[in-house]
Structures are given as structure tokens and as C-alpha cells.
Amino acid sequence: MKVALIGFGQAGGKIVDEFVDYERRTGLDIFSSPIAVNTAKTDLRGLENVPVDNRVLIGQARVKGHGVGADNELGAAIAEQDIDEVQSALDEIPVHEVDAFLIVAGLGGGTGSGGAPVLAKHLKRIYTEPVFGLGVLPAADEGGIYTLNAARSFQTFVRETDNVLVFDNDAWRQTGESMAGGYDQINGEIVRRFGMLFAAGETVGNDQVAESVVDSSEIINTLAGGGVSTVGYASETVDRSDGGLLSRVGRGSEDAVVDDMEEANTTNRITSLVRKAALGRLTLPCDLSGAERSLLVVGGPPEFLNRKGIERGRSWVEEETGSMEVRGGDYPIPDSETVASAVLFSGVHKVPRIKELQQVAIEARENLDQLQSESEDNLDKLLNEGAEEIAPLY
User: Fold this and answer.
1) 169: annotated binding-site residue?
2) pLDDT tens digits for 316-350?
3) What is the CATH number of domain 230-346?
4) Most buried by CB count within 10 Å: which residue of 104, 119, 181, 300?
């Protein structure tokens, strides 16, 4: 799948930087002219892989390159004002080769949470390609302002995109882990999962062809319909010393029993990995029952992949979600030492974290209204008291 990748804000830029590194390491060609947009010069300078010409600084007239200080209303206003600067960078992307846009943003900060929905609305107005979001929710210990920003931004981001793939930092930060180390580990997890998902169906410099190809239309159709998505992932190291199943094909009838055993092992491994991916730690923890659409991808050495395992995995996902709209396929990676499964669940509804954010937004609005009312009353009282003590000028 060919993706036009745009990182908005500090977290979005760093994740896009990781995606570019992933693309280079794997030899893939899936991200078209990746762009990083920010209001802070230092954040853009800290990127290592996004080309310098693709780093867009906005808001110079208002914040002088110093960021918006976690003010997502200011971030949205700057994005609206400087959207033409972002569009100038987008004009360099060969959109005719692109299957979809992907806007990556941390929803707790100011620039990303404010600007990402603005950009999504702009892209949908101009282009016919689908616009997806990859939104990162802040951990609870990152501070109340970041949770409030996420609560404010999340619904808008979902409304303005065709689907938002969510990664919840709160479910992934480890106790006692440093802030920098935690974010590095989290960004690696994000890239591993979503990189494998978007890479499915693309060539990796070899002539291996998947038995059941996952093409871009299947990914797009799984994400179609809007809403929120989560991804699960599981992997297992394999022993390639015996050559695997395919090396035995055609050898002779005396090896038929061994062949059947290897095929059964391959099938069971794939089915097990699909279950582990779905029931393990999701990018956004949720109840999978009721998920509207799903897609599973199993990648690894071709000799350790087979259609039967994927079909069984799909059947299991259908039972787990109660949905018949489950797609799937394999992703041959000849040089890999592991077999991995990524499972995308789209249109999930039973998400405790989202309900928590919605409640935060409601309580914050009530508190702000109350504080504003008290502030106005206190100001009136102060002015009235002062007026009684000050003698008239004439």
C-alpha cells in the first residue's frame, strides 16, 4: 500500500521519522515523500530521517518557532492560517501513485492535537483518496492538560478522517521507565505493527508471491466506514535449519508423513499467532466483540506460511468479533527469522479509554463554565468595591 505520510507535531514527527527508518531497513517503498509539520524549530531539527526539505515550520508569525505550549486551540488556529505552507509540501507528492493519506499525531500536545484535524479536513476537501489518522493518546501520568487536549481533539479527529488508528500510551508505558526510553520503545511498537500492516502486498526486492495477497483495496475497505481501529501483533522465532515445508515438496512418497506434520505445525503456528495477536496487548485495549471489520496479515519466510492457517485464523476472528467481514492474507519475507501476525480491528465500539476521555471532556467543560462564572462574579465584586473607595476625578 502506497501511503502519503504526514507527521503533525512533535510525537507525529518522531513516529514518521521511525517509519522512514523502518522503510530503509526493510527495503520497502511504501511511504511517499514523508512530511513533518511543526510549530517548534527544535523538534524539526531533531529528526534524523525525514528529508530537510520535507520539514515544514508553521506559525512563525505567531510563535516564532517556539511551539504552542500545549495550547491546541492555538495549534488549530495556526494550522488554519498556514495550511497553504503545508499544501506546498504536499504538492511535491505524486498523488496519482498514492492509495491513501495517513496523518500521524500525538493527541495530547498542542500542535498535533490542534492541527491534525484541520489538515484532515483540508485533505478531504481537495483529494479523493481516503484520509486516515494515526492518533497517539497520552498516558495518564503525562499531566491533566494532555488528557484534556486528547479529549478535545479525539472526537474532531475521528469526525474529519475516514478512520483513526489509535495507540494508547497508557497501555504501553512501563513502571519505572524513563520518559525518553518509554517513548522510544512505544514508537518502535507503533512502527512494527502499522509498518507490517501497510507493507502487506508490497514487494521486498524478491520474486516471492503471497498465496493470498492483501492489497491496498482490502486495507482501505477494512478501514472504510469511519470510526476507530486497533491493531494486535504477535511474533515467533522459527528454526530454518531444516528448510521448512517447501523444501520437502516433491521429494518422494516416503516423506509424505513428514510433509503432513510440517504443514500441520505451520497451520497451528499461524492460528496460534493470530489468537495471540488478537487477545494480547492491542494498540487500543477494547472488547473485540462487535468490531465491524477485521483484517489479518501473517508474514515471515514463505516456507512457514500456508493458506490453511490463514483461513483458520480468519474463521477464529469471525467467531471472536461476530462479524463476517474479515479479510486476510500472507506476506512472504524470505530473509526473516520470525513469523508474525498483525490483526486490524476496525469500527470497535466497546473501548473504556474512549469513554474515559469523553467523561473528561464533559467534566472539563462543566468546570470551565463554573470557573468562568466565578471569575466574572469576582471581577464584578472587585470593581464595585474599588469604585466605592476611589474618589471621582471631577
Assistant:
1) yes
2) 999 999 999 999 999 888 888 999 999 999 999 99
3) 3.30.1330.20
4) 104
